[in-house]
Fold these 2 entries.
Entry 1:
Amino acid sequence: MKLYLGIDLGSTTSKAVIIDEHEQIIGRGITNTRSDYRVAADIARMEAEFNSRFTILHRKLKSETNGETNWTEFFSHLKDRFHFLQFRERFYKLVDAIKSNLSTVENPGDRSRMHPIIHNMPGKILSVIRDRFLSGEVSTTSDFFRDLFSSAYMQEIEHVNKDIYDQLVAIYDRAINPIENENITFDFGELLTEALDMMPEDFRLNHQRVERHLEFVAKESLEPTDYVGTGYGRQLLPFEEKHIKSEILCHAMGAHACFPNTRTVLDIGGQDTKAIQVDRHGFVTSFQMNDRCAAGCGRYLGYIADEMSISVSELGPLAMGAEYEANICSTCTVFAGAELREYLNLGEKKENILAGLHLAIVQRAFALLARSGGVYNEFTFTGGVARNSAVVKYVKQLVIQNYGEMKINCHTDSIFMGALGGALFSARRK
Amino acid sequence: MGVQKETSMIKQKQMLAEHFMELATAKESGKKVVYTFVPGNLSELIYTFDMLPVYPEINSLQSGMRKKSGDYIRDAEDMGYSEDVCSYVKCDIGMMLQGNIGPTGQKLPDPDLLLLSYTGCFVFMKWFENLKQFYPNSEIAMLHIPYQEAGIIEPYAVQYIKDQLEREVIPKMEKLSGKTFNEAKLKRKLELSAQAEDLLIDVFDSARHRPSPIDAYFGGVYYIGPIFTAFRGSQDCVDYYQELKKEVDYRVRHKLGPVTPDGVLTQEKARLVVEGPPNWTHFRNFWKIFYDLGAVFVGSTYTRVGGVYDEGFRHSPDDPLGSLATYCLGCYTNRNLPQRIDLLESFITKYHADGLLVNSIKSCNSFSAGQLVMMRELEQKLGIPVGFIETDLVDPRYYSYSNIKNRLDSFFQMLEQRQSVRISDEILSDDVLA
């Protein structure tokens, strides 16, 4: 089997996509980008490989069982458990680091008060997170290790006294970065075996079938025939020049592969917004990117989420519950934060404020779209921000308002478009 | 710059050194000094009265290249000029505040005449209003050039400019210089201008060859253009272009690429046409991005700011003032958008360009307004990749290498993608493609 790999090292998330020789996606991997870009790229790639192994296994089982088993549901449970086991590995390392940081607390009184908290915390946190994984609540595309751990940790320490609270936060902060930047290797077969043991009763009957293929699936070589790296951090990838491609071309290629009639692609990523015009081959004819200011990109949402002490994934759903959009006129992320606080002081509902903030982002993106020549034919919206339901709503609204009724595409794989484009470039290379 | 020197370059250096020496000693020699602008400059007329021209935009770009513009701009901003004011203006004002030292380290003389030729850039008027504050004793003359709204040069506009020359500009020059207007002398200069213009166009048109022997943007402003602005109407100017043409012809015969600061470009990978001025503060770094990738500019509109000669216009002794008027009307910044698009299209087709690049200038409205429309029209009409970057003329704060490089990486890959399709359809000739 010939495989092609695309890696998109974005400012917020790193993505990897593996496609087969028929240009079908067989594996996707994603993680949060961290200070060591190579680790982020390696993890994304490893996740895409594991995901590919699941796909291969799924295809095999499906082909030999004539539909009597709901394999989609089976694999959904299996992957939840598998991902939990991956989480657990890094979790133990982080807990050890936090414990060892405890010895750096200078005041012995503080240290002894913090000791029981630190030593009792792991069991509680792991159990809470385990339940979240096993009940399918954790999204592997947006709930990353850091997010999962920190929210549970902060919840665990929120009632302690202020004087030791800050120190508990500080020892976590010092521990998370080195652990997050550590590359951990996993044995797919071992993890899968353990995950199978954790499956709910109803699915246990399938174990034998799965185990028959386990060795093959775990050992099958997934070495790509060719690969391309793209994204904001592409120059930092340890790839030769010929394996590096501009993210503009990759996003366009990915979007065009999913929607061949699209002529205009809007991609909102972590710190870049790109308005891209493509021809019928998927070749870029022109593009515009935000320059000098990243307001209106994903980081803007991240900033707002921090200001409101909620997670980024909660923003869209909250904004969808608005009665109207509060008027946010600022074109600067930081000043928009000031507007947000002002509205909260005035008693405005946070849903309405958030709706206004979402609309503001989309309006900025549309100014860029206008600069790039507007919207032709089919319109495709991609990038990490395309997962936010409120942004999608306003994008659709503004496309119709400004350019009339037309087909608007927003793929479930929107965040993977750059990596998919990279994989396609490598597959089509002569 | 540690550039490879050709005879024309040495001559250029000598001519400029002599020019600045003349300026530095103008007071002693009694020569009157005219501050004026590059677009719509009346060099021949100025030299007819034995006066010397000073071009504030050129002083500013020179300050930019010598890394002095940042300080000058800061001083102008301290004085109250806002961040959004044209950086050429602020750089010029800052230079005056610091003693008006020119590019050769010699002090520039105060102006005796501020000759404002208005060719589409409204900032010029404010600029000279400000200079008048600095030099209250200088005369001021305004030459208003009507914008080519309809895209044609109307006879009334030519007459209107001739009237201003006769009633306003020439009498002031006569008064200042103490000399009567000598039409025969002007005619001789215009004849020399026409000769230089023929040669200049020959040099620009050499870009039709593959490889192009010239870089019509960076090389255009560094080697090809400067002499034209300051010396049009002189025998020296004709001699310079004869020498340059000889060198270019040699390069064509030997299939040599253009000279860059790091030597001759050996492998031409992409041919580009560019709209907009270059950035001066990081001129070499900016140029290097292109020549490192084997990209050569075969046409640029910025080198037509001082006059457009591509469509046949030449200064003419047959109608001296009329040809000066027609020249002013035809300057690039005095043309409407469809005309600018037509000129770009002619460059793209005539010089077989693979793509169009727009360098939008943060503080220059006269150039930047309309660039997006121009880009879009050309992209749709010619089906070529277009790229867009943003820098500034001489404000170093607006040159972001990583932003520019990131956009250019994508643009070059767009070109490659196109070329891979095109090469299979077309066999490329080694010789002239026209």
Entry 2:
Amino acid sequence: MKIAVDDSVCTLNAECTYAAPDVFRIVDGELVYDAEPTAEQEAAVRDAVDACPSLAIELVEE
Amino acid sequence: MSATGQDSAKHVVEWDPYAPEAIADPPASWAALREHCPVAWTERMSGFWAVSRFDDVVSIARASDRFNNSGGPQFGTSRPPLEVDRPEHTFFRRVLQPHFARERVAQLEPGVRRFVAEMLAPALAAGEGNLAEVLSYPLPARTLCLWLGLPDEEWVVLKGVSEELFEAEEGRGDDPATRARCNEKLYDYSRRLVRERVESPRDPKVDLISGILGESDGTHTVTEAHCVELVRLLLTAGHNSTTGGIGNSILRIAEAPEVQRRLRAEPELIPDAIEEFLRLETPVQGMPRWANDDVELCGREVQAGEMLMLMWASANRDPERFPEPDRCLIDRSPNEHVTFGRGIHRCIGIDLARLEIRVAVEELLARTGWFELTGEPIRTTFIRHGVAHLPLRFREAA
């Protein structure tokens, strides 16, 4: 599983950083994320995708 | 009220947002609620539960599967995306999102800067002016016209009707007939505009209405009727709150010489300072949700279908989340205020609102040596918090 974030619509709402804090962080006003999360993080990442108000996060299944 | 035995008295009334003491000192009124009655019933607006603590406000905002947005559309019909739930909500956000994309909003900045310069010029030449009249009221409505591709001068009509509507709300004019008439005017405007775009579509990459009309995901399709509802929502939500944000920010700077000195010396602090002004002076003080099922919240029995008001303004001053919550710290970090909401319904126009407030503050500071109040400002409060009268005098330097 890989993560793709559409920077053009991300408005740094930060909902993903609450849903999956191990995967998404905001550092100096930028969204930083682990594009290839582990299997254990998958549930949290799905919550983050679901929580994003801008619908900016996509999962790329392999 | 609870002892009358009347059917209408569903719950004990615990709070009145329009009571003189609540209007005189809203933060004190919320502090009392957070401490003693964090989920409080009021009979205003046909009755709702005021939710005042940060943690409760945020968890309810995030629980869109248990608390819906469609339980009581303000004007009878649901205006997407705000007044609809999933899965329709996801569809509308997805369709709208490109029109609120970072680059599209950034393209508006030169226009907004030009508007601010034009609007400030007469007041600067006169050495004084009512900044509400010359800047904070016109700018967001004019920017909305620019963004929707409307003739520039239309902002006067939109702002005029929106303000008349606001003034007729409960707790102010309390005039349902005027509210209905203004709402109908705005719907007429929206219907005419959408029809115009149906008949002569514009570039769908640039024009919002032409861009979303007919969009489909196989299950949902954006119809002309949807567009009318959505544009009707934008015709008020697209500028009212930003007017509050601009007026509140300028007032905060005018009232605090040390803040003004610091922002003049270090203009790079302006964006963070604005976030702190937005936390302390929350333009939209609360937004409603409706309980899907009976639920107990902080010891209160909330019944299915009842309205809960998520009090963003109170959550923003919760000492459990913000140390020294009533102090204005322009470099406060972290500053996780909930002024733009939380959860899936978080404000879609965040970047546009921030752009307008920042440009207004930057230009006002850059074009003046100093500014200060020359009289009492007039505040608007509950449920829209702003400045209706903001008399300033300009000087060369401090």
